[in-house]
Every structure is written in structure tokens, then in C-alpha cells.
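Need residues for this backbone.
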């Protein structure tokens, strides 16, 4: 099956105009000949019929839109806006155009490892576009919700509360790892978690827990903090982003998943006992395990995709299956794209950002101004991504409680490569060359002028 493909980039160079430009813009319009529903989305098949579309409206930077658009965008970052640290051609102009025309968008990425504020400052500098943490969601951003409440209802895909049944982890001991666990600890503390432990803390306090590579112990000692007690009870484990030391992290995490009540250095007597539910595995107050994304690969400087956090999760789960003789799957909660929890969180962030953006641009002194200034409901969000397994699948499968449609646009500038991967496993609404082509395609579909 082939999805609707955009015209070559050269046919659409004029739509995304730079700030203060008053030039007329020309874009390409592709006429859909047939439609077919796949993956619960309408996939367009069409021939290319270029046409000139006048979208010039004389708008200057800082001017308010004439009407509030009923649509918005969600952009992945790596492979869509940036390739490693460099902007993908057209990305800056695309974001500038949306900002100038008050078309709301958020950045929705499975990346992480930096605080949202630091990451947004970095992105603003690299893209040359002012951005805000208020419309930015990275993989571990939703973990902030767990500071003062639990994800414990039946709709949370098997997630559960702290071992003692209390909601919220603000005062609980949590273990955190990632590409830089010391930095991840600071992020978690900024979120509101007050007792954050890293594998370095445990290794420094108990060197025998991982009897390999003495140099690693020296390295970790530089960032280690004293444990709150020699053998602390851990209530939750968080993988904030792609771990670097898989061996140490795997050992410590599995020790805790096999523990009695989450206490370091213990072993549950229920493990492997058939008289207990789940053969006793993870049935004795062990910590909840959270992953911030499941991306198997990501696009880096090397010409082939590199292992991501999903690869670490798969390796950990594989060892778990060996330990349990395949009698129990490893219980864990995974967020990030494509999971519904992240899309719901992102939609809430987008709705709040959109309301503030559009209401703040409209002045009306009439008594009923508030009601009339309120923007119309959000009809559609265009998810622009490079990964069929996360960006496209997530948008296709997400069912919005607000009734908002999520359309998926797959770009060719990132991890997906047709020559290597074939047709995408999850069929997008459209396949386009790049982010500029994605926005042009969506604006044409919306009849935006």
C-alpha cells in the first residue's frame, strides 16, 4: 500500500515565508483520486497535479490571525526538525510561519535526559526560533504527575500504586537511571521528587553488588550520594532516557524486582511459587518500573539507526524471561510515543497552550467578550514524525476524549527509510519529504489561506 506522497520540495518552496516577507507564496496541490481506510485512518492515494495557490495575506510579524485555526501541529524533533544538532532544511522557516500566523503547535519528543528548560533553550538557539517550555513535552515530562498522585486505575495498562498503597511518590525513595543518572536525579528533584537514588549511590555503598570494572566504580563515586539507609526500600524505578551502563543498571533493577518489599539486598520468598498469582513474581511489594519510551532505534550521526531505550527494555525483559522461565512477563509501565498516556498528556498541554495563545491575541471590550473570544474546539492535530513505530502508530491509535482527530504525517528525513525498511508498518495519513512539506500538505487540506 502506498500513502499519499507530496510533490517534490522544489514545487513548494514558497509557502513557508520568512518573517516580514510580503512575497506571494506558491505551493503544490495534490488531488486525491481514491481513499482507503487503513489503521483507522484515511490514507490518500493520488497523482501529482501542481497548482498555484495564493496564500499571501500581508501579515506582519506579531499580528494576530484573522480567525482562530481549528487545527494544530505536534512535531517530533530528531529527524523532523533537527538531525543531531543541525536544523533540517526548512524547519526554522516552518516554525516561524506557524508562529507568525498564530497556528498552535507543540514539540512532542521521545528524547530526554535534560530538564525541559535546558532543552528548550538549546532548541531555540539551534533552530533560531523562540520556543517555550509551555508547549514542549519530552519523554519523561509526564512523570511529574507521579509526584503527588498514582497511576493506578484500570485504564492505566496494569500500572499500580506505591507498595504501601499511597498515592504520589514525592516522599518515597525512587531509583533513577538514564544516559547521565546524576543529571536525571536533578531533573527528578526539580519535578518534586525528594528522595532520588541512582545506581552510582548503590554501587558506591555496596561495591560487591557489581564485581566488575573497578574504573567504573571510580567514575561513579564522583557523582554518588550517601544512601538514606544502608539497604533502602525503593518504591519506584524510573528509566528517564537511554541508559549508558546497561550491565550495572540491569543488575540493580533486577535485584529490586526480585526483592522482598523493594528492600535492597533481599529476595522475596514468593518468587517462583505456583500457589501465588503470577507465580509469585512481582507479587511482594516490589517497586513499580517505569520507562519513558520504547523506541528500539533512533537516528544519530552514524548512517544506520542506533539502539534506543526500547532496546534496553527488551534486553532487560529478555533476562527476566530467563529468570522466570517464561512464566511471568516483567510488569512495567511504558510511556512516550506511541502510548495513549503521552498523547493524552500532550493534548492537554496543547489545549492549554492554544487557549493562551489565541485568547491573548484577541481583544474585545463587549460584555460577552470572554465567550466570543474563546477559540473554537480543536478539530485536528497533525502529528509530524519520522518513526512509524512511535509517531505514526501513536497518532493513528490515539482516541481523544475531546473528540480531536489526530492525523499522522511521516517525513523522509529521519529514522524511516523506504529502501531499507519498505512500506511503513503503520500507515500514515500522508508521506511527505520533510517538515515543510508536512505543514504545506496540512494547510492545503485545511483550506488555510
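Answer:
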Amino acid at each position: 500500500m502506498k500513502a499519499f506522497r507530496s510533490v517534490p520540495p522544489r514545487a513548494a518552496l514558497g509557502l513557508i515565508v520568512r518573517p516580514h516577507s510580503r512575497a506571494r507564496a506558491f505551493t503544490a496541490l495534490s488531488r486525491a483520486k481514491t481513499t482507503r481506510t487503513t489503521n483507522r485512518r484515511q490514507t490518500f492515494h493520488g497523482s501529482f497535479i501542481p497548482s498555484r495557490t495564493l496564500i499571501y495575506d500581508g501579515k506582519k510579524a506579531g499580528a494576530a490571525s484573522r480567525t482562530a485555526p481549528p487545527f494544530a501541529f505536534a512535531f517530533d524533533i530528531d529527524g523532523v526538525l533537527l538531525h543531531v544538532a543541525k536544523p533540517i532544511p526548512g524547519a526554522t522557516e516552518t516554525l516561524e510561519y506557524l508562529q507568525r500566523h498564530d497556528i498552535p503547535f507543540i514539540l512532542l519528543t521521545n528524547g530526554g535526559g535534560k530538564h525541559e528548560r535546558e532543552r528548550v533553550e538549546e532548541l531555540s538557539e539551534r533552530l533560531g526560533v523562540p520556543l517555550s517550555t509551555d508547549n514542549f513535552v519530552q519523554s519523561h515530562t509526564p512523570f511529574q504527575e507521579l509526584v503527588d498522585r498514582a497511576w493506578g486505575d484500570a485504564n492505566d495498562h496494569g500500572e499500580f500504586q506505591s507498595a504501601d498503597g499511597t498515592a504520589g511518590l514525592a516522599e518515597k525513595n525512587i531509583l533513577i537511571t538514564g544516559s547521565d543518572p546524576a543529571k536525571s536525579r536533578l531533573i527528578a528533584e526539580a519535578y518534586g521528587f525528594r528522595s532520588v537514588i541512582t545506581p552510582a549511590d548503590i554501587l558506591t555503598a555496596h561495591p560487591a553488588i557489581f564485581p566488575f570494572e573497578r574504573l567504573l566504580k571510580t567514575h561513579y563515586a564522583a557523582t554518588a550520594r550517601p544512601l538514606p539507609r544502608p539497604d533502602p526500600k525503593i518504591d519506584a524505578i524510573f528509566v528517564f532516557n537511554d541508559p549508558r551502563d546497561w550491565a550495572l543498571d540491569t543488575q540493580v533493577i533486577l535485584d529490586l524486582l526480585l526483592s522482598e518489599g523493594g528492600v535492597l539486598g533481599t529476595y522475596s520468598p514468593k518468587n517462583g511459587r505456583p500457589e501465588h498469582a503470577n507465580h509469585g513474581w512481582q507479587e511482594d511489594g516490589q517497586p513499580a518500573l517505569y520507562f519513558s519510551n520504547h523506541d528500539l532505534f533512533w537516528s544519530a550521526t552514524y548512517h544506520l539507526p542506533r539502539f534506543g531505550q526500547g532496546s534496553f527494555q527488551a534486553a532487560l525483559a529478555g533476562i527476566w524471561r530467563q529468570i522466570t522461565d517464561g512464566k511471568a512477563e516483567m510488569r512495567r509501565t511504558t510511556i512516550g510515543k506511541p502510548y495513549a498516556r503521552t498523547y493524552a498528556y500532550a493534548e492537554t498541554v496543547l489545549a492549554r497552550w492554544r487557549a493562551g495563545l489565541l485568547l491573548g491575541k484577541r481583544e474585545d471590550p463587549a460584555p460577552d467578550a470572554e465567550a466570543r473570544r474563546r477559540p473554537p474546539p480543536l478539530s485536528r492535530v497533525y502529528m509530524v514524525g519520522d518513526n512509524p513505530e512511535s509517531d505514526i502508530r501513536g497518532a493513528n491509535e490515539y482516541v481523544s476524549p475531546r473528540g480531536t482527530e489526530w492525523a499522522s504525517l511521516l517525513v523522509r528525513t529521519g529514522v524511516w527509510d523506504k529502501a531499507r525498511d519498505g512500506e511503513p508498518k503503520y500507515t500514515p495519513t500522508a508521506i511527505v519529504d520533510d517538515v515543510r512539506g508536512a505543514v504545506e500538505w496540512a494547510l492545503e487540506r485545511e483550506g488555510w489561506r
